[in-house]
């Protein structure tokens, strides 16, 4: 009797990636060639901007655009390309697997709502700066209330909305009000979405690259290599990251790039340990022994079997790391240890703490957005773990 074929694939950690890809070399070449074809122009543009464009000139000034890209912007675009060619495109190439995991994921309603919110943050951070001008300081527009709210007119230098009964009402010019310096809260939040998106993509890429490499190499090599790498991981985990950041801040100054570099450089230890523990079970599987007996080299075994079969652990671990990075940036900005000119949510919260008594929207608006973003990442990580690795959920319920 023939067995009816369903849409349910094997467990994520047991997926035969070679079979799913059909002809692996062909699919890999398509993704890799696409990545190379888009990365080479990006590298050329970065070299042109670094070598020939002045510090005060716009990167695209030669074509009449005022966009001025920094090294962080180039790195951000590179991580977006990685995301598209090695996550989005494979999902498109394997619709049956994608449908199954989406069906499992959407059972968690809070996670679906969280995914929608994170998409809003991503799209706002990606397209917002192209649509809205950067928030500018205007002292005469300071302390404007949000739309449908009002403030005592005595606390406003110049009311841009209606004045009724001695109170200044908000205007759609500044839908979420303004800070003391007159910067629009809404525009600052949108530009803060760009900062948060850059932190999320770049830091997770660096952490994944280092943590996965160290974790899988340690698990597969074993012996003195495992011991040496794990002791190095212990050093990284025990290193005072905040003190290092303050030292670099004192020497080189504050900046988003410096924050990403320091925190991602010392945040991969936990990922390496987590990946190592998962890789140890994979390295002892029968198909790994079969692959070795068939003549596969170390690199081939790690690349084709160990890393793909620990993918669920890697994805969920990285998803749960992002809230820590966002919260760390907000805390440092609130303590005025970051770049004061950076339009981040933490800087906006810091700017409104002295005006909390009569202008609470300056703190509440970015605070609520930051809270929802961190909460969304936590919900998303839990749902991905349940969808990609249902065995973990079953073991938890026992």
TrEMBL record:
Protein's name according to its UniProt entry: ABC transporter permease
KW Transmembrane (keyword) present: yes
Pfam families given in the database record: BPD_transp_1, OppC_N
CDD domains, per database record: TM_PBP2 (cd06261)
Record InterPro entries: BP-dependent_transpt_permease (IPR050366), MetI-like (IPR000515), MetI-like_sf (IPR035906), OppC_N (IPR025966)
Domain ABC transmembrane type-1: residue ranges: 193-381
Sequence intervals crossing the membrane: 28-48, 74-92, 112-132, 199-220, 358-380
GO CC term (a single one): plasma membrane
GO biological process: transmembrane transport
Record's bilayer topology term: Multi-pass membrane protein
Main location: membrane
Family under the similarity heading: Belongs to the binding-protein-dependent transport system permease family.
Key words, A-Z: Cell membrane, Membrane, Transmembrane, Transmembrane helix, Transport
Subcellular location field: Cell membrane
């Amino acid at each position: 009797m023939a067995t009816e074929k369903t849409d349910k694939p094997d467990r994520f950690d047991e997926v035969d990636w070679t079979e799913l890809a059909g002809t692996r070399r062909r699919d890999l070449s398509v993704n890799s060639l696409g990545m190379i074809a888009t990365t080479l122009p990006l590298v050329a543009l970065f070299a042109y901007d670094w070598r020939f464009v002045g510090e005060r000139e716009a990167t695209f000034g030669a074509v009449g655009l005022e966009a001025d890209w920094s090294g962080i912007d180039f790195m951000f675009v590179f991580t977006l390309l990685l995301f598209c060619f090695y996550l989005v495109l494979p999902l498109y190439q394997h619709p049956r697997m994608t449908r199954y995991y989406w069906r499992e994921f959407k059972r968690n309603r809070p996670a679906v709502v969280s995914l929608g919110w994170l998409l809003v943050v991503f799209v706002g951070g990606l397209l917002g700066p192209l649509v809205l001008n950067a928030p500018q300081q205007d002292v005469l527009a300071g302390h404007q209330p949000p739309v449908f709210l009002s403030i005592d007119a005595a606390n406003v230098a110049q009311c841009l909305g209606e004045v009724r009964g001695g109170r200044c009402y908000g205007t759609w010019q500044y839908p979420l009000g303004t800070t003391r310096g007159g910067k629009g809260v809404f525009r600052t939040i949108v530009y803060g979405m760009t900062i948060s998106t850059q932190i999320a993509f770049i830091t997770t890429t660096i952490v994944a690259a280092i943590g996965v490499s160290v974790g899988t190499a340690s698990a597969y090599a074993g012996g003195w290599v495992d011991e040496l790498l794990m002791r190095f991981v212990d050093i990284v985990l025990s290193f005072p990251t905040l003190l290092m950041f303050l030292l670099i801040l004192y020497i080189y100054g504050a900046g988003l790039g410096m924050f990403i570099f320091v925190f991602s450089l010392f945040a991969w230890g936990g990922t390496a340990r987590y990946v190592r523990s998962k890789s140890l079970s994979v390295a002892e599987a029968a198909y790994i022994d079969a692959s070795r007996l068939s003549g596969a080299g170390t690199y081939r075994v790690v690349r084709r079997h160990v890393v793909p079969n620990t993918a669920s652990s890697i994805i969920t671990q990285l998803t749960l790391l992002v809230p820590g990075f966002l919260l760390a940036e907000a805390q440092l900005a609130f303590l005025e240890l970051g770049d004061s000119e950076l339009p981040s949510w933490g800087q906006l919260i810091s700017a409104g703490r002295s005006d909390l008594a009569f202008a609470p929207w300056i703190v509440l608006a970015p605070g609520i957005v930051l809270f929802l973003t961190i909460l969304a990442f936590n919900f998303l990580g839990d749902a991905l773990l349940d969808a990609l690795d249902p065995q973990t959920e079953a073991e938890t319920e026992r």
